[in-house]
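call fold(seq) -> tokens
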Amino acid sequence: MTIASLSRIKTQVLIIGAGPVGQSLAIEMGQRGINCLVIDRNERVGMAPRAKTTNVRTREHMRRWGIAHKLAEASPFGVDYPSNVVFATRLSGQMLAKFDNAMYCAPGRNPLYSEHAQWIPQYVVEQVMRNHLETIPSATLRLQCQMVGFEQFDDHVVVTVENLATGEQQEIDAEYLVGCDGGRSLVREGIGATLEGTYGLSRNYNFVFRAPGMEKAHGLGKAIMYWQINADMPSLIGPMDKDDLWYFMPTALPPDVKITKENAADYIRLSTGIDLPYEILSADEWVASKFIATHYRDRRVFLAGDAAHLHPPFGGFGMNMGISDAVDLGWKLAAVLQGWGGPALLDSYERERRPVHRHVMNEATANHALLGNGLLQEGIEADTSEGAAIREQVGQRIRAGKLSEFYTLGTLLGDRYSDSPVIACTPHPQAPRDFLNYVPSAEPGCRAPHAWLHDGSSLFDHFGAGFTLLVSGNPEEAAPAAAVADAAQRGIPLKVIHPQMGAIHGLYPKRFTLIRPDQHVAWSGSEWPAANDVFDLVCGNPPARAARD
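ret:
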């Protein structure tokens, strides 16, 4: 990666925003040889308490990019640190409920996924991504540079940018422009999209502070998050990074409560019951809202991540959902730019992702509806039999009501793109989604089922960078020559695999399963269609006649 002057730059894809979503998009395309430029008005440094959960699906993408192990190595507490979530009256008080291995962060091999989740600050995630971007020759990153405006033409977009260090403005010619520029997206404004939804679900604060000795000052055990349920200050608190860094998040505050860097330490003492020399490092007031953009695209300009959707952070979905946006859009843009993807492929981006966004937004909003303020009951801290009964009652309510926030494998892995124009599936009624239980399925539209092979590798490790044709069943069965020929004729990258393991046939019951670059099933069947139109459909090229089994 080279940091170059922006004067008269031409690039294939210009990405506005160098957060996790923008960098993921650059990695996804850059590793496919697409020239992409990422700009951001900030230095992308600091310790703001943004996302802290990198979930199993995001780490599966990182495994594909070759950096999942790098993220594990960067973990401030080590990947073995327990990802428990504890509910208590206060940090120095009594436990109400506990969720072990929340978000599935425990290392070890789970047959359902190839990578466990990880509790790690977003700024560390960004640095790991940034280090990887530096190894990709076709990706360029420019910080302290902001978009001023853009104009679309038939075959390109002209974007005006400003170097904030010098004040100089330049024009950039790009074949496509993607706004990964967050909730206040200028790109979204530029395509005339507006946000629809609800503002002001709650008013909250985030603080990062240094607290030497905090870990040993309480008896609740190691955890990544402590919910404090008390009348003084319902809040979340927990360890964030090495060097005794913690975060503190008072929730659902009334308008008259103002917390600043100057008085935050007093509120930490009040809520925790622990008196230590707290050093407040950062303060951030934020409002939980639920919004989705009216549209994600205007011709050659797209939106991804928070530029397209916003929701409360409860459940750890936000950053991760944006990264999956980048993956979906990234391989499709690369396919079109390389000549083997067609118009319907780009049309499918919003068709596939919008239903996912709506579902996850509803899950996150439901989680937000049960904050510590709503769990509070008078007498919860009383050292009496009545107080013990109240705590037991509240604990039962927590265990039932917060299950969907901390154990969500069905939500994380259950996305099904059955309504996509580039998925070869026959519409049929779908069972209601279960946030908790993920049931692997090789039906078109679903994430391909995972398995560990007998040599210790993940099945996903054997998928190709393009499409993968998995041959299941009889070990003497050969891949259809017509499929290989069809792909070669169209310039479509195709890898054929035939895993020799009995369990694979149980997971992939059809003789042939065609898997996309993002590990979703595009088509399956017992025979390769004589019409030879499978690749036309799944790559969005005309004629797009449906390929059915």
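Residues 1-6, 544-549 have pLDDT under 50 and may be disordered.
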